[in-house]
Amino acid sequence: MNKPKMAAEKSASRVLMLLSQLERLNEDHKVSNNDAIRQITGKILHLLQTQEKTRKEVTSKGSGGMEVILSSLENAQDLQTTLNILAILNELLTVGGGRRTGVFVSKGGTAILLQMLVSSSKNPPANEELMLHIHTLLVKVGPKDRKFGVKSRLNGALNVTLNLVKHNLQNHKLLLPCLQVLRVYSSNLVNAVSLGKSGALEIMFEIIGPFSKKSTTLMKYVVSVLCVCSSGMNARRAVDRGYLPTLLSIYQDWHRHDTRHRHVVIRKSILACIKNLTNIKLGRKAFIDANGMRILYNTSTECLAVRTLDPLVNTSSLIMRKCFPKNRLPLPTIKSVFHHPLPHIAAGGPVAQLYNQPPGVDDVVDEIFSKDLLTPKPDESPLELDSISISKRPEGTADHDLVCSLGRLVVDAGVNGGSVDGLQDEGGEQAVLEVPDTAALLPLHDPDLYLEMVKSTRSVPAYTEVAYPDYFGHVALNLREPILERVYGVQRTKIFQDIERLIHSSDILDKVVYDLDNQSCPVIDNGESLKFNSKFESGNLRKAIQVRKFEYDLILNSDINSNHYHQWFYFEVSNMRPGVRYRFNIINCEKSNSQFNYGMQVLMYSVQDAINGSPHWVRTGSDICYYKNHFSRSSIAAGGQKGKSYFTLTFTVTFQHKDDVCYFAYHYPYTYSMLKMHLQKLSALRTAQIYYRQDDLCETLGGNSCPLLTITAMPESSSNDHISQFRSRPVVFLSARVHPGETNSSWVMKGTLEFLMSCSPQAQSLRESYIFKIIPMLNPDGVINGNHRCSLSGEDLNRQWQSPNAELHPTIYHAKSLLQYLRATGRTPLVFCDYHGHSRKKNVFMYGCSIKETVWQTNANTSTCDLQEDLGYRTLPKLLSQMAPVFSLSSCSFVVERSKEATARVVVWREIGVQRSYTMESTLCGCDQGKYKGLQIGTSELEEMGAQFCLALLRLRRYTSPLELQNHNSHLLDTENDLIDTRGIPNITSPTTYVLEEDEPAFLEEVDYSAESNDENDPDLEPDLQDNLALLDPSSDSEFSRQDSVN
Ligand SMILES: [Zn+2]
């Protein structure tokens, strides 16, 4: 056993001996040495080919072997020596050559090879073996050399290789490595353009061909070179030459013949090239003209069953979506259907921008507004409060759905002229509504009181109808509603169904069944279409189009005096068939991603179920997903944001009952009339101990009152001590629902208010500790009119706090005035918290204000914010995370961004001087931590959160009591320090938790489905190419990228 080892060692040392001989000969530079050099290199090559261990010896650290070999290559005087050395290098870099290739590159080997390639091409015909060796080495070296693209271009190697390809089309032995090298060259975009100019595409299309078993390797390399089309110029060249139809038929051919899926790589590369060509407009047109939709649709549907072909299906789907003809939304204008005349229009405000646009700037022709057809006349007469009744509207159909048998709930408050017909049913008797008895379960709900409240609610469209769910009330479901697991491939399936609209256009009905823009929209009731309705408080649905028998496209209305913010929806559906799967698509969503991609469901309320004893909003819908669609929007329609397309939210529902009336909503509805009802019920809970007072903060633009509550404990007696304690209680200031679509914030507020009015000892103790000033709905008009984000001024009220306008933003103006008054009278609130809802994150969390954690350089005098004060803002979130199961401390952030400087939280912190100034965000979806992990959130969890917030305030009192602070009770301060100790608080001090947009921070989910969506900026590059691009020398290619991006 010892002998072979000895022999190996001997040979190893022999190779080193030969190397040092070679080194000496190199230094001599004598012509007479040439023979010796040739012999020695031959011997080294032989050793390397026969003794594997010698490879390690040659390249071992400190051996200097690679330097000697490279310098011999540079100095080689004859062909045989050169070939020997190239063969040596090929041996060294072949097996496990990763590190050795690195050494080769670091010693300047790439440049030597490229120079040799170029110089030997100057004396044609070039030696074939030499070219073969050089290219074989370049294939190995190129991907490891981050400067390879630049080096190859500067040395002039690109055209040498390309010419070799051109002249050796039949010589596969040389052709193959040359094609591989071209592929590596063109990873660099500048090179790709240069190769395109030199005719690379034309040559590739000479070689490329239909399926053939013999030429699969050749095809693999040829199609890989087509990646040069990732440059726009080359894509244009290819489209101009008419290569797109060629590629499509070649793709079809390989798809047909590659039945055992052995050549998926080739098929994938062809698709990648088609995808590149369709990045440009001409390419998309050529694709459509060449029947590309049908070809890719058919090939993809044949691939669907085989999971390993998913990359082909996904790329095909991406191409088809990109080429799907772009449409405008089928609307007369994207401006809101409803318009509210403003007292004055701020010159630079969104409404002025909206209505001062030159004609043609709107996405669609704007005739309706000029005629002012849909603007309801402001009602000047006082409401006739006692004319309210539940009435029944004749439906005039033989089809007896619930709306027919029960009648629509119509409140006649004289707003629409009092002309409501059909107060009686067919039998001539007053309609009797079976109202579910929820009095025991919903102490704050009373249907009659609700109708009473509706009478004084003033909406822009002058609604008279009442939605059943709001009338009956919602009892929280006593069932777990898990966050849905996403079905594999659901988005793809939906997209294919969308594409089928083009492929099988004869199946498409395109029947408008509901249209707010055309109130007389003829609904041909043949019993085959669903009926829609959204004409009630907080309702939002603009248009419904029956696309196929059981599929509807739905369009949401913009916020009033605006042309976007489509997100909130609330509408009624009837005339359904039970047991049938209906697909609904809301086609004008705007956010680029949504919790609907992460397990959130829509909410549905069945009136039949309610009457049968289950008055619940229930999470419902299957096959839910959210993706970019083919409806385009202008940047004006996007409120100046980028983004050319709308998004579709799709969900599928099977109705249980015949003759039902069902309602769908984005989240649990909570109307303004409901708030008024709750407040009336709450005020009735007042006891001798409770001080409860309701004022009107102000009147809104729409003529509704904005309630302001004051809640505290009555002084124990009229003694001076008690009165003085009463007066010295710190103020806690709370608000909610500045954003109308965030109904969850109202449910949290309801929980807070119910707790504050309860008779528990803790509630009493809390009332004795603080004076609560509460504005439960900062944007009543937005809520009433079904807006998602804005008030009637068309503005986001939570961006107006810096300088609110008394006329345009009355609730903000008066809320801020009240805070300023409190501060001026020495009653600066201890805590300010504005309740919000969050559409893209899970759990409940808070945003606070911290100088320390803020990148924004404030003008605030930092000396007023010593460390102790600075950390006080952490106590409340920390307490909440200990007490409230839905609350997540790790999602909290305390950074103040400049873009947030006009929000309530920041203005109250900076201008009013409230250290503990927060936004509290509640998820619309569910929880991924705590007791409710994996569940969607419901109203009981939201209300519980509101109550827990109160309990946390009670505990906060211990750390903030003025008496104890006055005594400098160091023990207590230590306790607070313990509490706000940041250890164990993940992320809280991390600079990565910057909030980019208060309500929509960066999407932090683990899976990003947007990769599946039709993103034209999506780099259409394979991973290795991307890697190479990432390594591009930015200085050398920056000019190029500017030129080439002109698509
Ligand atoms: Zn909000």
TrEMBL record:
<keyword id="KW-0496">Mitochondrion</keyword>
<feature type="compositionally biased region" description="Acidic residues">
    <location>
        <begin position="1008"/>
        <end position="1025"/>
    </location>
</feature>
<dbReference type="InterPro" id="IPR040626">
    <property type="entry name" value="Pepdidase_M14_N"/>
</dbReference>
<keyword id="KW-0645">Protease</keyword>
<keyword id="KW-0479">Metal-binding</keyword>
<keyword id="KW-0539">Nucleus</keyword>
<dbReference type="GO" id="GO:0008270">
    <property type="term" value="F:zinc ion binding"/>
</dbReference>
<feature type="domain" description="Peptidase M14">
    <location>
        <begin position="668"/>
        <end position="957"/>
    </location>
</feature>
<dbReference type="InterPro" id="IPR000834">
    <property type="entry name" value="Peptidase_M14"/>
</dbReference>
<keyword id="KW-0482">Metalloprotease</keyword>
<feature type="region of interest" description="Disordered">
    <location>
        <begin position="1008"/>
        <end position="1047"/>
    </location>
</feature>
<dbReference type="GO" id="GO:0005829">
    <property type="term" value="C:cytosol"/>
</dbReference>
<dbReference type="InterPro" id="IPR011989">
    <property type="entry name" value="ARM-like"/>
</dbReference>
<dbReference type="GO" id="GO:0005739">
    <property type="term" value="C:mitochondrion"/>
</dbReference>
<dbReference type="GO" id="GO:0004181">
    <property type="term" value="F:metallocarboxypeptidase activity"/>
</dbReference>
<feature type="compositionally biased region" description="Polar residues">
    <location>
        <begin position="1035"/>
        <end position="1047"/>
    </location>
</feature>
<comment type="similarity">
    <text>Belongs to the peptidase M14 family.</text>
</comment>
<dbReference type="Pfam" id="PF00246">
    <property type="entry name" value="Peptidase_M14"/>
</dbReference>
<keyword id="KW-0378">Hydrolase</keyword>
<dbReference type="GO" id="GO:0005634">
    <property type="term" value="C:nucleus"/>
</dbReference>
<keyword id="KW-0862">Zinc</keyword>
<keyword id="KW-0121">Carboxypeptidase</keyword>
<dbReference type="GO" id="GO:0006508">
    <property type="term" value="P:proteolysis"/>
</dbReference>
<feature type="active site" description="Proton donor/acceptor">
    <location>
        <position position="921"/>
    </location>
</feature>
<protein>
    <recommendedName>
        <fullName>Cytosolic carboxypeptidase 1</fullName>
        <ecNumber>3.4.17.24</ecNumber>
    </recommendedName>
</protein>
<dbReference type="Pfam" id="PF25571">
    <property type="entry name" value="TPR_CCP1_N"/>
</dbReference>
<dbReference type="InterPro" id="IPR033852">
    <property type="entry name" value="CBPC1/4"/>
</dbReference>
<dbReference type="Pfam" id="PF18027">
    <property type="entry name" value="Pepdidase_M14_N"/>
</dbReference>
<dbReference type="InterPro" id="IPR016024">
    <property type="entry name" value="ARM-type_fold"/>
</dbReference>
<keyword id="KW-0963">Cytoplasm</keyword>
<dbReference type="InterPro" id="IPR050821">
    <property type="entry name" value="Cytosolic_carboxypeptidase"/>
</dbReference>
